[in-house]
Specification:
CATH architecture of the largest domain in chain A: 3-Layer(aba) Sandwich
Pathway (chains A, B): Amino-acid biosynthesis; L-leucine biosynthesis; L-leucine from 3-methyl-2-oxobutanoate: step 3/4
Strand order of the largest sheet of chain A: 2-1-3-12-11-4-5-10-8-9
Strand content of chain A: 15-25%
Binding site for Mg(2+) (chains A, B): 221, 245, 249
Order of helices and strands of chain A: EHEHHEHEHEEEHEHEHEHEEHHEEH
GO biological process, one term (chains A, B): L-leucine biosynthetic process
Family (chains A, B): Belongs to the isocitrate and isopropylmalate dehydrogenases family. LeuB type 1 subfamily.
CATH superfamily of the largest domain in chain A: Isopropylmalate Dehydrogenase
CATH class of the largest domain in chain A: Alpha Beta
Number of strands of chain A: 14
Pfam family, one (chains A, B): Iso_dh
Number of helices of chain A: 12
Bound molecules: 3-isopropylmalic acid
Largest interface: A-B, 54 and 54 residues
Oligomer: homodimer
Number of domains of chain A: 2
């Protein structure tokens, strides 16, 4: 298989962990006889420094022509006080919209050896394994008007969805549930929002197409509670953009594995952008100590979702599990009787396993 | 002191626990020589059944003439499939707006004997004591337009705030922090929403008026994480309506004391509506087993915030703590070597202590 992959290192530790993903993918290419060609472009703070914009057109064009995109992380204190169009995260929002990456998938599964790092009691969190399917290109993030009025004395943002936008993400949720344990939780605020009422209607209509999936509706406030009191209740959660932002961050700290969590943002045709859930960690950037696992697991998701290379994805995931089982870990994790390694050594261990 | 109190039992266990609050307030009145006069009105499902609307005008009028309002809870399966204008929660939203109860205060503090019921590890949650100040009459809940368009193919909701609405709730947040540990966390999504940018500006402007308060800005997704990983970090959180809805429900399950948590919804002049955080619990309604403590503690908040009767409020809180320390508890709680009691007996214990 021949594929073009765009690398967007971004800022902070993004620049380090992206190399790890590349090394691992090259190992996969050799082992399985694929040809991956890589092209690197700027986004976020790095792009602001070089080109005066968080999302240069060359970056967008390259991504549009690619088969998949890997992104490290964006942001850092250097750009925190910039005006909003010169903020690194505008690059992220921009590329999602430009590529129509409407489906954000965040699988959250704890690693047994890390469960002790969870703030939750082991008996509460043990066995939890859920997938959050978040709508990523609509809702309050992109609705207009979004502006000040009356000399700045009033401000409005707009939560808007078309029925089509809701349908395609709800379909993703159902399909994901079919491939997992057949349980879908649709999260909305239908007791208050008109948009949530339409959302709930669409879910109800789609039910018939997926008779093998059991669906429930949960209000967003109740979902925020239940994620903590009963995380094992959930299989797939599907929800709109802002609710998904809040709930997926909440869920990501439950298992103690935040530094290990990958994510995928997909377009209808399979083009995807893959990035770790963690941020650019400016405090440890440049020191060679960052945990590359979330980035490497994001590359595995790329193989699975964009290239349908399930076996190759599985090998990477097995490699990570096995290295962790052997006790190797980076400085962000605590593993009993473990062996502390840096970014490069961790990457080499995974490459060697492959 | 002479005060008129409107009781809105609502539905389910609301009807039972409201009696407990009344009994406790009557004991306080006798002991401290006050005169409280009570008037009962309908809201929610009960009002739908009797008057065909979840918020009859007689109820609104009575509340407007009262010095304070106590509300039990609204909702139940009987009305779950009603059209949205005939849903019990419309009564709740309506009374908040009609009385201009813009400031919702939810103190969340664990009881030591109940901490074992928390899903969090004791070392994570122990010592946490926070207050969420939620804006209650603006934002996505009440913004217009909120409607379907294009034959139902598009839907919009509007998140709107005036600068004044933001200022008055931010003031409440600062003032609450002054009376507590002097730390205020303002939660927004300023990297995406225009409304959050104005919110953040207002907080920055107000800083100078409250030099004794340390302020930080936290994004709502990060706040949802930090509430779990580090709940003791927080003192006062101030935020807009929907973020407050989600975060306060999330926070309410951290300490294992959900059935014990009161809330206050205040107007600028001190008029307030007080209600337990828990719902109407239709599964145990009518059995005399409901935990009346959240309702009774809500009555204590009424004495404190609407009537400035701090001593009287404190006595109720001490009574609850002491009864709990003695081992008495209702069926929703598990207390080691405890003595199980029903609603009436629990109420009598608290009344006798007073
Ligand atoms: C950086 C920010 C705009 C972004 C979002 O809110 O979508 C981030 O929190 C995320 O979840 O990827
Ligand atoms: C019932 C519902 C409309 C209400 C809200 O969202 O405000 C409830 O969740 C609350 O927090 O009091």
């Amino acid at each position: 298989m021949k594929k073009r992959i765009v690398l967007l290192p971004g800022d902070g530790i993004g620049k380090e962990v992206i190399h790890s993903a590349k090394d691992v993918l090259q190992a996969i290419a050799e082992e399985y006889n694929h040809s991956f060609c890589f092209e690197t472009h700027e986004i976020g703070g790095a792009a602001i420094d070089l080109y005066g914009t968080p999302l240069p057109e060359t970056t967008v064009d390259a991504c549009k022509q690619a088969d998949a995109v890997l992104l490290g992380a964006v942001g850092g204190p250097k750009w925190d006080n910039n005006p909003s169009h010169l903020r690194p995260e505008k690059g992220l929002l921009g590329i999602r919209k430009a590529l129509d990456l409407f489906a954000n998938l965040r699988p959250i599964k704890g690693f047994k050896n890390l469960l002790h790092a969870s703030p939750l009691k082991e008996e509460v969190v043990s066995g939890s394994d859920l997938l959050i399917v978040r709508e990523l290109t609509g809702g309050l993030y992109f609705g207009t008007p979004s502006e000040r009025r009356d000399n700045g004395n009033t401000v409005v943002d707009t939560l808007s969805y078309t029925r089509k936008e809701i349908e395609r993400i709800v379909d993703k949720g159902f399909q994901a549930a079919q491939q997992r344990r057949g349980h879908l939780t649709s999260v909305d605020k239908a007791n208050v929002l008109e948009s949530s009422k339409l959302w709930r209607e669409v879910v109800e209509e789609k039910k018939a197409q997926y008779p093998d999936v059991a669906v429930e509706h949960v209000l967003v406030d109740a979902a925020a509670m239940k994620l903590i009191t009963n995380p094992t209740h959930f299989d797939v959660i599907v929800t709109e953009n802002l609710f998904g932002d809040i709930l997926s961050d909440e869920a990501s700290v439950l298992t103690g594995s935040l530094g290990m969590l990958p994510s995928a943002s997909l377009r209808e045709d399979g083009l995807g952008l893959y990035e770790p859930v963690h941020g650019s960690a400016p405090d440890i950037a440049g020191k060679g100590v960052a945990n590359p696992v979330a980035m490497i697991l994001s590359a595995a998701l790329m193989l699975r979702y964009s290239f349908q290379l399930e076996d190759e994805a599985k090998v990477i995931e097995d490699a990570v599990q096995s290295i962790l089982d052997t006790g190797f870990h980076t400085g962000d994790l605590q593993v009993a009787n473990g062996r502390l390694v840096g970014t490069a050594e961790m990457t080499k261990l995974i490459v060697d396993y492959i």
